[in-house]
Amino acid sequence: RNVRCLRKGPNDDRVTAPLGHHDVLIHQVFCRPCMLRDCPIDHRCMGAIGVERVLREVQDVLEVGERGGGRPAAFLAPLRASKGRIVNIGSIQSFVHLRTPSSPAYTASKHGVVGLTRSLAVELGPTGVTVNCICPGPIHTGMTAAIPDEAKTKFARRRVPMRRYGDPEEVAHMTLSLVLPAASYITGAVVVVDGGLTIQNT
């Protein structure tokens, strides 16, 4: 089956360009809130952010999510034709609130990903297209690279039952499982890949 990777910025109109026949759409709107403002990854800064700062962050992050959220529309016609798969990428902050810089904005945007998944699953169900969501927990990625290893270890031992950060491949394996023919009757599912973090902290 056809596989293509299209990685563009959130303002790149080429993302909406038709790609021809395709069967799978992995939809991730990347936005690390602390990149939007000069704010270090340091929980101590939260007390000094203030309401106005939080509101600015919410507006910035949701605007990115809104622009990105409209992108899948260009892909729906070919997916309907092939009874394809959509996998949205959320976060554990779709369910739990982790106190990080700009976390109110990030948490709000990731809650929206779960809502988008469930509504699209219902709307596209009659066409045979499945829509599911992966919610990763603490993973070794470029987004978490700036966090010191000592802080990661401390966080994992305190908050993650498996006592470690996950690897990107572990998220990729679950994503792959949702686009296989064996998953043709799974839609509207939200799968957490977090080493048990959410179940321990909810």
Low-confidence stretches: 33-51
Q: What share of residues is helical?
A: 25-40%
Rounded to an integer, what's the Rg over CA atoms? 17 Å
DSSP, total strands: 4
| Terminal Cα span | 39 Å
Please provide the ordered H/E string of secondary-structure elements: EHHHEHEHHEH
Tally of helical runs: 7
Mean pLDDT: 75
Percent strand equals: 5-15%
The biggest sheet amounts to:
4 strands, parallel
Strand order of the largest sheet: 1-2-3-4
Structural class: alpha/beta
Question: Which term fits the overall shape?
Answer: elongated
Annotate the secondary structure layout.
Layout: E1 24-27, H1 33-36, H2 50-69, H3 76-82, E2 85-89, H4 103-124, E3 130-136, H5 149-159, H6 168-179, E4 190-193, H7 197-200
Helix pairs in contact: 2-4
Task: Provide a quick synopsis of the model.
With 202 residues, this protein is an alpha/beta fold. Helices cover 40% and strands 10% of the residues.
Descriptive notes:
The protein is 40% helix and 10% strand. The chain is elongated. The N and C termini lie far apart (39 Å). It has a four-stranded parallel beta sheet, with helices on both faces. With 202 residues, the protein is an alpha/beta fold. Residues 33-51 have low confidence and may be disordered.
Write a concise keyword list for the protein shown above:
202 residues; alpha/beta; four-stranded parallel β-sheet; 4 strands; 40% helix; elongated
